Protein 1
Amino acid sequence: MGSFLQSLQDPRLVASFQRCCGLFLRAEDGAPTSSNKPCDREAASQGSVEKEGATPTSPCINGHGWHKARGSQRQEGPGLNGSALKMVMYLGQASKDLIKWPRPLSPPVVKLETRVDAEYGMPSTHAMAATAISFTFLIATMHRYKYSFVLGLMASTVLSTLVSLSRLYTGMHTVLDVICGILLTAILMGLTYPFWNILDYFQLTSPLTPVLAVVVPCLMSYTYPALDHYSPTRGDTTTILAVASGGTVGFWVNYQYGQTYEPTGSLPFEIPSITPNVALIAIARFLIGIITLVATRFIVKILSLKILCAWFNVSEHDMEARKRLEIEVPYKFATYSSIGFVAIVIVPLLYQLLKL
């Protein structure tokens, strides 16, 4: 068994997969090239750098209706995707800095990402996030809308598999990293599934929710495992926790004021046809939502950095200062919790105001 696990951790296995995809490493200078795909060659030569806090899927996931999917009469809750993703991602990110297994070596692996190369690799949090989001979404909707469960299961499996394989293609993880990420998520979902209703009910109804939703993630961010060098994992984890925190408070506010945005009729709901009118409305909602969230991020980030940098007497343009715990955690938490709250509370109100 030990030798089998070692073989799954072998970077040559990742390199073999990359070669099957047409991605090679030039022997003379170690630069990545692609034998037959111009787009691969360009990406390999320039590198693919992740943006701040990037994950394969947004952490701001709407958890509407998972109670109804499980037979409850309540119709909205943050307890499924938001809390599940927060729990999975924190455990995955913290595990990296506790286990401290390096990413696959280059050579033989072609590295297409540079920003996260300082992070450790075990487990793959992209694989964890993709698995958690795909399958919690399936659980949330399988009794709520009329569609084939088999097709839904296939779609969830394909989406999580594609994200997992992308981590091998970019050379960021070993096969063992990806497998462990998927298995860890499956175990977590299986252990916590019986308590989803309880958690959701508490989050929607308890007067303590706004306090706990902010204080607990803040403490988790501040007590994140420390390393002897800077790694973006703490900042990325803070981003994820903050969005989930703001979203949880947003769901609580919506529930208190009866803003559940639920369709009328009996379960399961018919999936509406995609007409030109529906498509236009969807595009309009998307653009309004994106513009609102980008503006929120821009404003809150600038304000929070100004306040923190003035408080600690450092320059706003000092990128090294931004990496300090006392600055990085509060500015990211303030910025992304605002995004989570605005996405759940303000953006739907804009849709109502604009009759969308």
Protein 2
Amino acid sequence: MLPVTDHLLHFLGLERTAFRTCAVSALLFSLLFAFFSLLLRLLRTCWAFYSTCRRLRCFPQPPGKNWLIGHLGTYFPNEKGLRDEKKVLDRMNDVVLVWAGPVLPLLVLVHPDYIKPVLSASAAIAPKDEFFYSFLKPWLGDGLLLSKGDKWGRHRRLLTPAFHFDILKPYMKVFNQCTNIMHAKWRRHLGESSVASFDMFEHVSLMTLDSLQKCVFSYNSNCQEKMSDYISAIIELSALVVRRQYRLHHYLNFIYNLSTDGRRFRRACDIVHRFTTEVIQERRKALCQQGTEMWLKAKQGKTLDFIDVLLLARDEDGKELSDEDIRAEADTFMFEGHDTTSSGLSWVLFNLAKYPEYQEKCREEIQEVMKGRELEELEWDDLTQLPFTTMCIKESLRQFPPVTLISRRCTEDIKLPDGRIVPKGRMPG
């Protein structure tokens, strides 16, 4: 019996009995045990954090804002932020230590030789970092970008047919059509404006979203001329996810959900999910009513879109993807497809404008391939006849990769080429 038991019974106004004494003593022992367990866990966490900090001292880090926010707010996703970040990476071109807040260190691996050990490690040693990718989870669900393990492997196998050449070749007509719309907008803009410049990324983003919506859903929203709610929601979600990464207090879900950005994020998610779900359910209903053979016969002469391929997909056990799985993959494809493609194309156009002599060589190469044609549109087989243009695209992608960071959380220490050890934890590369 603890000495404080009598005082506690007296304070509660309870008569002292053997049962009450034992019960209160047991309760106090449980509370003390829980308290010391929690204290021990806290001490272990603090010690592990201290040990990690000691091991990270060998890595250089740029000046930060202050101890509370670390390097958040130092490099914003704009032109000035990119220039400042490039200055740092030119000076620290192998690996850089940055802090997202006071307790979240991130090792940014820059040089390919440093990235290789992480990417060549197994998924068990260097899995996807669930923390930052979790910002996308309410929007993209458990699709190919965010899933892992057996589910990732199964979905990867089922999605492979969607990228077969026979599926992709007919999409060239869609790409040409959407690009022609963008070109017409540019001509109209230049004819109406005395200033021969505009935001290239905005126009290219709408073009890629227009292309994807036609290839994924066989749906024409005419979004390049008139913005739709669905396209507006995707653009807003992309911007909100990026902005959340730069606001430390928004890392906590319960705070973010109560914020203005959190409410806008949920509304945009609802719009995107509603559109995708309606298309999937309508298409599945038609498939069930007509049967696979009749349904495919009705598709003859038409292009199979991404939803069609996923609805027909079966694994080795004959199981199909659920509506939720298809929605997650379609939403993932719309996000990853438009964001990376529009960024990559914008940088290609930027570099060609920067080096007009290479731009002219690309133009001559394309004009040579198209010589004698009535319709000035590239075909699938033409893509292999453009070696110089292909080299320019690849060089632009090398210098300005559309995906600037991929995040991994190492479960084991990884040795770098110079002998330094990367301790287990989060590590964008």
